[in-house]
Hints:
By secondary structure, the protein is of the alpha/beta class. The protein has two domains: 21-58 and 70-146 and 190-288 and 450-513, FAD/NAD(P)-binding domain; 149-180 and 293-365 and 389-444, Cholesterol Oxidase, domain 2. Helices cover 26% and strands 21% of the residues. It is globular, with a radius of gyration of 22 Å. The two termini are 32 Å apart. The structure holds flavin-adenine dinucleotide and iron/sulfur cluster.
Amino acid sequence: MSVTATPGEGEVRVFADYDGDFVEEADVVVVGSGPTGAVVTHELARAGRKVVLLEEGPPFTPDDFVLEGAASMARTMREGGLRATRGYVMPTMQPIALGGGSLVNSAICPRAPAKVLDDWCTRFDLSRTHLADLDPHYDAVADFLGIAPTPDDVQGPRNLRFRDGCKELGYSSEPIPRNVRGCRGSGECFTGCRNRAKQSMDVSYIPAAIALGARVLTSVRVVKVETNGRRAEAVVGRVVEPFTGKLGARFRVNARMVVLAAGCVATPVILHKSGNLANRSGQVGENLQFHPGVAITGVFPERTHPQFGATQGYQSLQFIEQGFKLETLWAPPAVLAVRTPGFGYELKKRLAEVPYSATWDAITSCHNSLGKVVPRRRSMDPVLKYHLHDDDVKIMQHAFWVLAEIFFAAGARKIQTGIHGLAEEMNSLQEAEAIRKTKMRATDIVTGGNHVFCTTRMHGDPTKGVVDEDGQCHDLENLYIADTGIFPRCSAVNPMFTGMALAHRQAGVIEDRLP
Ligand SMILES: Cc1cc2nc3c(=O)[nH]c(=O)nc-3n(C[C@H](O)[C@H](O)[C@H](O)COP(=O)(O)OP(=O)(O)OC[C@H]3O[C@@H](n4cnc5c(N)ncnc54)[C@H](O)[C@@H]3O)c2cc1C
Ligand code: SF4
């Protein structure tokens, strides 16, 4: 798809377009333009419905993308990319941009494993969320976005060495399926794809929805859902200047159906600020889960040119049942350097080794580690509380060890783990044995958590969850939640594709229920 949702085309309203307070009317108003909101918007526009999509962030064009990590995060992420949990301190990034997380993510699109979805159904009184139920929805999204395994010619040495290391050890691995078209392997997914190959929502579902008649308003922050009895009637909010956060005009969108897709962290804040809406279960903002990620950097004898190659091109699902998924990784060096040891001369020497390095990570299923989203006073930003459980630290310890094994099997000459209390560099698998033998604590490990779940979880029992299997709030007739907050547990694999499949199903339900 060549069309993009840019302000220049006059179809996406931007900050400069608002000259006073305004009111819009819609069949359906969707709050949040990330992967889930974009799918709902597109599917309902395709059904001929009048849809208004509201997004707090601005649209970005390739000219806006900067390769420097901190500068990019300051513009595309909430709280300038400095958001972190309290309790156990872990950085977590939530986007603020047209397209939501799809603008900055690595386009990784696996289906959730059948066992994970079976487990959701068993534990949370669900009956229609098995893999076979979601497959038609996954298929529809995959067709639309061109999701396919990453071809070898854009992998680059950093990804292929991971494949070789896994092969050497007899571990399974495969090219990562991604929502890209014509990827050139430029490794820039995190700061925005300047090639427009990544099928982020602003170049795929959103322009297609606009072509079908959807209206897309950016720089608008929803602060409240207005209700009448058991019905949502409208959303209200303020125009917000990009990057400064300065508040502008007021707006209201009246709609027959309201869909919140503001993300797992923002949606509970909107509900709390709407008078503790949809919270008879007491579960809004509770049960917060992440896939905390741990990573190791390895240095090889030969150049790996890590800046080239698909940002994340290879994965291994070998250890899913042990609680982790392995992936290759690239991001601007300043972002990855969090586990690079040393100061001054030592640091300089190690940064000179970056062209010989690769970083591989594990995302972990931390079911025992829970948190909550608490609204701040006079702010739509949250306080995120989180506790990392000792049993989940053991999963990470296992993942670190397996990553070390793969690095040395792939020919690395040393690794850097960033684990507190262990040698800064390990030069052999024998030296890496310390990873297995140490008593590791949560505070010893550098983690990051960008996959967020469960704060408005789906549950068949209205006393235990916020939404039902279709994403409809138990407490209201016409309020739906689409974002990854509705996952009842973490998904074990990257969540975007599953979020979009659920959103695709939800759009069909809403269409059936609209008069
Ligand atoms: C750096 C990074 C890399 C990642 N890589 C991958 C990957 O490769 N594969 C994968 O599956 N997942 C990945 N993820 C996670 C994935 O991007 C998210 O799971 C996904 O974007 C969630 O989609 P969503 O629609 O639920 O919410 P989001 O994408 O978070 O979108 C929510 C949108 O709502 C807007 N919004 C919030 N509050 C308001 C408000 N009050 N009013 C109006 N608008 C509002 C936000 O600005 C945002 O644009 C990554 C995440 C990050 C940060
Ligand atoms: S690797 Fe480069 S070309 Fe491929 S999707 Fe990512 S940013 Fe775009």
